[in-house]
Amino acid sequence: SMVDRAGPAVNLVGPTNVASAGEKIVISGSGFTKDSTVTVGKKAAAQVEVLSDNYIVAKAPSGTGKALVTVHTPYGDSRGSKAATVSYLAHPGGCIDYLGGNITTKLFLG
After folding, report:
1. Which of 27, 31, 54, 72 is the most buried (most CB within 10 A)?
2. Average pLDDT estimate for 64-82
């Protein structure tokens, strides 16, 4: 029943270093629902795709510094933890986009 359903929990967010302009993140945890929404810091994430009760893909909004990733469901909100935190960087390392043929475009337009 709806009464004994647990709220969501976030166990892991990747990548932990996010481009300051915003980029896709994967959230792993439990208790996610189809209508889950995601906030990063105080801003709403876009393109939220709930893949399962345990995985969500979303586009983090632009930001700076450290930000808490929170999953919101009708049963409650995930609690903050170190594992649920991302750090915004101007040029995070190891981003797949930079390995393509349009290296200069990505680096200089971002």
Report:
1. 27
2. 95
Find all residues with CB under 8 Å of 67, minimum gap 6, and list them: 40, 41, 60, 85, 86, 87, 88
- Of 107, 56, 103, 100, give the one whose Cα is nearest residue 40: 56
- Does the structure show a pLDDT above 70 at 93? no
Structure tokens at 37: 């929404």
- Over range 56-65, report the average pLDDT: 96
**H or E stretch at 47:** strand 46-50
Show the tokens assigned to 110. Answer: 């971002």
User: pTM for the whole thing?
Assistant: 0.79
User: For residues 9 and 28, what is the distance between their CA atoms, to the nearest angstrom?
Assistant: 9
Tell me phi and psi for residue 55, to 5 degrees: -135, 135
Cα–Cα dist 63/88, whole Å: 6
Local confidence band at 79 (pLDDT 50, 70, 90 cut-offs): very high
Q: Which residues 6+ apart lie within 8 Å of 64 measured at CB? A: 20, 88
Structure tokens at 9: 């929990």
